[in-house]
Input
Amino acid sequence: MLVLVFKLGDDRYALPTADVILLVPAVPLRSLPRTPDFIAGVFEYKGLAVPVVDLQLLTKQQPCEQRLSTRIMLTNYTAPKSGRSHVLGLMAEDITNVLEIDRKQIKGNAVTVGEAPYLGDIATGEEGLIQLLEPNKILPNALQDTLFVR
Output
């Protein structure tokens, strides 16, 4: 499986490249009042209003710093509640590389965190552990209704 690796704090995370549409630089975002803090805002992409999740704030309770290396990963997000497909932005400070992970390297998730259902399996490799993220589990159901109105 091919994954896009990024760092949140000192920890490495990854998304399957099959879920990633495009990487864009950190663009100015319009804030969305009355949404959780980890919703960094929204921007326009090809005529769509794309909500952006600050992964650093979501996982580490500290916002992404606005660096030249900060990127927004546009992902295919299928809302579990409605089954509809949307574009969701995931912001990270340090996207490091693309890596091929063999299925034998995936060890499962030894710990399940109820408040973080988006944390998937853990892969092992020469550079240490990589936590896989499941983008379709990042948003709670109520927030899906708020961000993706059709």
Q: What stands out?
A: The mean pLDDT is 88. The longest strand covers residues 71-78. The chain has two helices and ten strands. Residues 25 and 71 are 5 Å apart (CA to CA).
